[in-house]
Amino acid sequence: MGAAQQRSSMPDGGRAVEARQGAVVAVGGAIAVDAALWVLFPRTFAELPTAFWVMAALALAVDARPYVVAGRRAGSVILPSICFTFGIALAWGFVPGVAVQLAAMAVAGVRMRQSPRRAVHLAMQHAVALAAAAVLAGLAGLRLDADPDWDDALVTVAAAAVWMAGRYTLDALTTRILGGARKRREAQRWSLELFATAALLLLGPVVLAAAQVGLALVPLVLLALHAVHRMVRSAGEYERAGRVDALTGLPNRRALQASVAECDAGRGAHRPERRLALLLLDLDRFRTVNDALGHAHGDRLLVQVAQRLAAVVPPHDLVVRLGGDEFAVLATRVDGPGSARRIAAHLADALRSPFALDGLVIDVSASIGIALQAERGGDGASLLRQAEAAMYDAKQRGAQYAVYARDAAHHTPDLTLLADLRRALQQEPAEGLMLYYQPQIAIATGEVVGVEALLRWRHPDRGMVGPEELLRVVEPTPVMRLLTSRVLREVIGRLAAWRDSGRPIRASVNVSVRDLHATDIAEEIQDLLLRYAVPADLLQLEITESALMADPHRVLDTITRLDRMGVAISLDDFGTGYSSLQHLRRLPISEVKIDRSFVLGMAAHTGDAAIVRSVIALADSLGLRVVAEGVEDERTWRLLAADGCHAAQGWFHARPMPAEAFGEWLARYRPLRPGREPGALATT
What we know:
By secondary structure, this protein is α/β, with parallel strands linked by helices. It is 55% helix and 15% strand. The strands form 4 sheets. An 8-stranded mixed barrel has the order 10-11-13-14-15-16-17-18, surrounded by 5 helices.
């Protein structure tokens, strides 16, 4: 299959035969009809002036370059000859006009390699359109000469409108009768076709007026025709660019949506047993290639994957790159789940052979989700969501592919939970969403130096939803930004309340890489800080080390802007994401938080204790604060103090609590320093 567009399902030899047949029909039909008209109306042709023959010759010449509208059916063509034939029909009647139009269409038909059916279809459309315009002009008594008046101009516009109504009404009727339900046109392309057609038609009277002044002026209309051609061509190039992935040359998500609609419209009485199937491929461990070899090599691998998929997919199907490392195949001749599974196995086999990049052999596999269109009228977005759900199901089960099952229990919770969360976020206050705060204690002084805001959600039916499950569902979706915005607003509002009560304290908020990829998060935070009059240094954002290190370059700009505003960045779960020291040095990070898995075991395992000491020493050398999470006993707390850790967070000091309970706890809290006797900590 070609990379940039879907190929026709007809073999090249068949298309060539059909094109030859279409040329015979177009040329032979034009000769036969024009000869019959010449025999039946000899006086009409004998009395035609020189201006007619000049315009007729130009009509044939310009139809050597017909205008095909991008993204429409193959028959959606604008013939520039209508500029001349419309004027001929208004000035000298229907018979000369249709004779020239058929001859010009024969030239265009050969040029476009039309099928016989399409040639006849277009001939009927233009004959009916010219007849309608000529009848209106005759009834209105239109006579175009060198001195037209306003009535002539109005009749000309009305005749052009009747021409367009006649052509496109017949087009719609014949398409519905012969080809089933017609797909809805996109408004932009439909407007372009109408505008270009109207411009060509209304040039006809201008050409006639120029002919009255002097025939030498008539060919000058070719400049105007060239301008219309450039307009249609530019719009077509823009349309094609919007449907093609720039990296691989494959069709993109937009092209997939259009193809699903087109294929669905084409289904019907011809092959009702055929179904559409969408196979979504997500490359496994592609991020590893990017991290190890760089994005340039990753892009080259994606291009090779695209080429291999395009080579094994049959011409009647469509290969699409959705973005990132996701590809899709739209299969148009699927009999059922078994047929779709065979296609998935074929695609997996195609990727099994290693790929070569600069001498490196790279193995690639993919998880494939399959969604079958259940009935006509479905849209591409629904099919894509189902394929995505099946793909995640395949990943979770370690299977190579999975078929979407509408009633499968393992799909429902995630989708329902996401919908319920979106609904909760749209309410004021958000139903069931709560923020808990856990203190962070300076180990050297025992003072409370900050809190971490922790999200809790009590679902109306499922009860308390754990943060791990909640983030797993929401983080890959746009709902994550809605959730982060709500949390930021509530935390900054709470900071303002604490400051007004005389207890200014820093709060840390967890954000995702998806949040930092959004270009507006810095502006959103700045607006909230100004609205609540909260100093920027009272807010800190936490992002996990593994997420940040996956793509540090994309978030660098956002983190830098936040740092310049005075908002600190804390690297959470430090020690689990294999941070590059170069990234730690370049990124404006103020704090690292040692992952609780190391802190919990440091009192019993020398290995964990050594890791914690190394992290503290590394952060200290880079000028970063260190916070230890998971401090649950006094011995761990004292070991951290001996190692020089700056702050501790964990149940040893306090559990997470609602804002009101935190205020009461803070009023009772008395600082505990490592040098005091064990057991001296005030109870909560």
